[in-house]
UniProtKB/TrEMBL annotation:
This is 4-hydroxythreonine-4-phosphate dehydrogenase. The lineage of its organism: Bacteria, Pseudomonadati, Pseudomonadota, Alphaproteobacteria, Rhodobacterales. Keywords: Cobalt, Cytoplasm, Magnesium, Metal-binding, NAD, NADP, Oxidoreductase, Pyridoxine biosynthesis, Zinc. PANTHER family: 4-HYDROXYTHREONINE-4-PHOSPHATE DEHYDROGENASE (PTHR30004), D-THREONATE 4-PHOSPHATE DEHYDROGENASE (PTHR30004:SF6). It catalyses: 4-(phosphooxy)-L-threonine + NAD(+) = 3-amino-2-oxopropyl phosphate + CO2 + NADH. Substrate binds at H130, T131, K268, N277, R286. SUPFAM superfamilies: Isocitrate/Isopropylmalate dehydrogenase-like (SSF53659). It comes from the Bacteria. Binds 1 divalent metal cation per subunit. Can use ions such as Zn(2+), Mg(2+) or Co(2+).
Amino acid sequence: MNTKPVALTCGEPAGIGPELAPMLWDALKDELSFFLIGDASHLPEGSPYVEISAPWEAPAAMAQGLPVLPLPMGAPRVAGIPNPAHAAGVIASIERGVALVKSGEAGALCTLPIHKKALKDGASFAFPGHTEFLAHLAGVEHVVMMLASPALRVVPATIHIALADVPKALTPHSLRRTLEITNAALSSQFHIAAPRLAVAGLNPHAGEGGTMGPEEITWIAPLLEELRRTGLDIAGPLPADTMFHAAARARYDAAICMYHDQALIPIKTLDFDRGVNVTLGLPFVRTSPDHGTAFDIAGQGLANPSSSIEALRLAWAMAKGTAT
C-alpha cells in the first residue's frame, strides 16, 4: 500500500492558495501526510510550518506544522494582485511536483489553483490550462478531466476551448479515447467492477432525430454502439437536460459531456464546495480543488477549504488504492 505523502503545489500566490495550505494541514494532520511546494513567506503570518528537504520527511513533520519543500518565489505576496515575478516559480512548483511523483518520492500530486493569464503574462505560459500542462510534462497525448464529488462524476470530452470550436474538436477518435480512459480509471482507480457510463448529446435534445443537429446520428450513436460491442456499458447519446436529476444519476457512475459547461454546471450546482478535479490518463495520480484563485476574497479570511480538503483526501486514497 502506497503511504508516501502527497505533493501539494502552491498555485497562484496572489489567490487563496497560501491561505488554504495551513487550513489543509490543520484539517488533515491526523488523517494523511502531504507537503507544500512553495514559498513559506507567502503563508499567512503565524502559520505553523516546518521546512523539509525531501518528501520522506513530511510524515514526521505533520505533527508540528505544515511541511514545506522550499521554492522561493523571489517577491512578496500581495493578496488579490498577481505579480509577474511569481510566474516562473508557480510553473516550477508544478514541474517539481510532477518530477517527485514520477520518481516515486511522492505518492500523488494535488495542485492548488493557478491563474493562466498571470502565468502567460509573467512567463509566456503556452498551455490552455493545468490539465494540458500536466499531460505535456507526463509525455502523454490524451488525458481526461474528471470532476468528482459524492453526488456526481462528470467528464467533459472537450475542455478549455470556445464553444464555437467544440464541433470540430470533438472527433470519433477523441471521444473514443475519453470513454476508454474514463472506463479504465473507474475500474482501476475507483474500484468499480463494471463501470456505467452515460454520454450526453452534443445538440439540444441529443439532436432530436437530426432536427437540431446531425452529429448524434452521423457518428456519436454509431461510435457508442461500437464500444458497447467491446463490452463497455454505455447509455446515450442522451439529452443533457434530463441527465442530472437524482433518479438519472443513480443509473450511471460517470457522465461524459461534450463541452466544458455542459459538465461543470451540474456538478457545481449540486456540490459546489466538495467537487474535485481528477486528471485521468496520467502515469500518476493528480487531483485539484474545483475552484479558481478567488482574487476577490484573497487575504480576507474567507477562503473555504472544503474542495481542497476533498482533493487531498481523494489523492491520498487513490494513491493508496482505497478510492471508491
